[in-house]
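Sample pair:
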Amino acid sequence: MLHQMMAQDPELAAPTLFQVALPGNFLVSYRFYQPIFNMMMGTSRPMDNVKIGMDEPQEDEYALFRLTTFSPLEQLIFPSNREYFLKGAEFIPEGRSADQWGRSLLDFYKKIHFASHKRILSKNPFNSLRIPLLAKLFPEARFIHIVRHPFDVVPSTRHLWSVVQKQNVLNRNSYTPTIDEISRFFSQMTNTLLHDLSPIPEERYAEIRYEDLEKDPVGSLRTLYRKLDLPFTDRYENQLNGFISSNSDYKKNIFVLADEEKEVIADIMRIYMERYGYT
């Protein structure tokens, strides 16, 4: 939701589905592939009914996987055993491979900037565990950490990976993670993210609650932009209001947790829930 709303900003350029699918040649291949993509694609994502299209914003992890062959997504597609693919996953390669990974990311963004002449907007959950490297690669980058109630995030994540694995796993080791596993990884990821963000200057880092964004999207984004010293223009506000109106009938997935599942999540994520007012 935040990603798509910020992508309405005419001053920002988010990588599109087409660009992350063909990161090496999207500058020259768009007009040739456009009719093929349009024939093959559906209109919404299978896990949450969010609009999808070749020009819609997309996470850049897919591009990085194709450009570098390094990503936790590899263990999703070719799981080596029947366990949660993020257990023990590596998010940054070691040594020279890390330098190559960084250069590939820079080259990908340079091509997007060449096509758009705009600031790049990236949304990639795996980047939560790459903050030091990203801060080094992009010294003036702004970082946004969006949080949401774990009783919504954890079952949503379980549903997400269940759907994604059915579509993408290429061997017989597919596995739907448990509430316990997701909660523990979520907690560990948040602890690492907050630690790695602590050296980032205050004016380059902001937090936002999903619930606040949903209640008052324009006001929340205006506050967010002010915190990060980004221009919240009239043109952006108009496009944002148009986007909100056009998606007013969107229905979120609804998940029901058993009381014992809520207890597991609350026990593992107690500090997170207290920090962000979810107790």
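The first strand starts at residue 12 and ends at 13.
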